[in-house]
């Protein structure tokens, strides 16, 4: 969490220095975040600016899962014979309290006056608490914490943007926060 706060302070200072004459940008979006085989809803907001001479935006993005993420994997303990008799064994991983902050560059390629594709590349700090529960026939046999995901990762993505009016657009995107965590979302952007 301290890393996320330090990154936010640094990004805010950089943004104020760089965007004095640039067009500002605010984005709000929501969608699905996936960790491994599990997923849940998330929301994110971004503030940034578009460079005057180039079709590139610089963004600070903050996001959080709206619920816990649960993964279940069949461990297959006892083999097929045990499963045929109704015995089951699963390993559940739950990531609770997922939060992230990203500093991104977003080049934009206009295909028409109202439609464009864009890319995302940058650095994301991710924080989540991961716990594991193993069950045989629904009874917890392994219960422990895998610890926290707390680190920085290279992040990338791509999206589509449709401009309805000059200062308002809707967007849909795929964004990989890390090799294990990705998001798909829809949202809107306001240019001011």
Automatic annotation (TrEMBL):
Residues 13-192 form the Outer membrane protein beta-barrel domain. Residues 1-22 form the signal peptide. The keyword Signal applies. InterPro entries: Beta-barrel_OMP (IPR027385), Enterovir_OMP (IPR000758), OMP/PagP_B-barrel (IPR011250). It holds the Pfam family OMP_b-brl. Keywords: Signal. GO terms for cellular component: host outer membrane. It comes from the Bacteria. This is Outer membrane protein with beta-barrel domain. It comes from Arenicella xantha.
């Amino acid at each position: 969490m301290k890393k996320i706060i330090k990154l936010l302070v640094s990004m805010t200072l950089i943004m104020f220095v760089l965007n004095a004459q640039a067009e500002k940008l605010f984005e709000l979006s929501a969608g699905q975040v996936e960790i491994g085989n599990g997923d849940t809803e998330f929301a994110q907001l971004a503030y940034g600016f578009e460079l005057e001479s180039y079709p590139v935006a610089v963004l600070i993005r903050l996001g959080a899962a709206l619920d816990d993420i649960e993964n279940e994997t069949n461990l297959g303990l006892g083999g097929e014979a045990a499963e045929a008799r109704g015995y089951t064994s699963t390993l559940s991983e739950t990531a609770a309290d997922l939060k992230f902050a990203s500093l991104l560059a977003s080049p934009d390629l206009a295909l028409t006056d109202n439609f464009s594709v864009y890319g995302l590349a940058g650095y994301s700090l991710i924080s989540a608490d991961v716990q594991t529960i193993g069950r045989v026939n629904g009874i917890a046999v392994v219960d422990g914490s895998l610890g926290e995901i707390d680190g920085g990762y290279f992040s990338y993505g791509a999206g589509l943007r449709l401009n309805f009016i000059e200062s308002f657009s809707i967007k849909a995107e795929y964004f990989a926060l890390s090799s294990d965590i990705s998001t798909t979302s829809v949202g809107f952007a306001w240019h001011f």
